[in-house]
Design a protein that fits this description.
Layout lengths: L1 H9 L23 E2 L2 E2 H4 L1 H12 L6 H12 L14 H6 L5 E3 L2 H7 L5 E7 L8 E9 L4 E5 L9 E3 L11 E7 L1
Antiparallel strand pairs: 1-2, 3-8, 4-5, 4-8, 5-6, 6-7
Helix pairs in contact: 1-4, 3-4
Length: 180
């Protein structure tokens, strides 16, 4: 029910920059969109990561549609805690997107140069009782760096990293999805 009301609200917004990727969930149109009882500036990172990955793979659809589909399957406490990152693979299955799910930090980052992109979730500061964040990442072979999308709430461009530890650490890693 709530997801349908939010869908009507969300479909009025065009939350993509010129390249089609979404960065800075606290800025622009995407910040005005809703997921559960909250604005996506607060809780939209998982849906944005799915959107960015699907867009990169050429299977993009409006963010409002992704939220409508995934809310009943993945939201946590009416969106207060965003979405459960462990069940994001339901989106990939429903859209016939090949993926490999891993709970292994090194396996995820070691495989990243060999896939189109990855979606990963990690604790921000401390495990379990801290907040978590989910991002889409890809390997830029030209620059030999990892590109992270929607790293910060207020930064509207992707962030480039020389080392994986600048994204997250092994201790804070939750789950990763590798998308060939």
């Amino acid at each position: 029910m709530l997801e349908k009301r939010n869908y009507d609200h969300n479909k009025r917004f065009l939350p993509a920059d010129k390249t089609g990727f979404i960065n800075g969930q606290g800025k622009g149109e995407v910040a005005k969109m809703k997921y559960g009882f909250y604005h996506m500036a607060w809780n939209g990172c998982e849906m944005i990561a799915l959107y960015n990955a699907a867009y990169l793979l050429g299977k993009g659809e409006p963010l409002a549609d992704i939220c409508l589909e995934m809310y009943p399957q993945s939201s946590v406490l009416c969106g207060f805690f965003g979405s459960n990152p462990i069940v994001l693979d339901r989106y990939f299955k429903a859209h016939d997107i090949s993926y490999e799910k891993t709970y292994d930090y090194n396996a995820f980052f070691n495989a990243l140069p060999d896939v189109r992109c990855g979606v990963l979730s990690f604790w921000n500061h401390r495990r379990v009782f801290g907040s978590l964040h989910t991002v889409m990442v890809r390997w830029d072979s030209e620059r030999q760096q990892i590109v992270e999308y929607n790293k910060f709430n207020s930064k509207t461009v992707p962030v480039f990293h020389d080392v994986r530890g600048l994204i997250t650490t092994k201790k804070l890693f939750i789950v990763g999805y590798l998308l060939p």
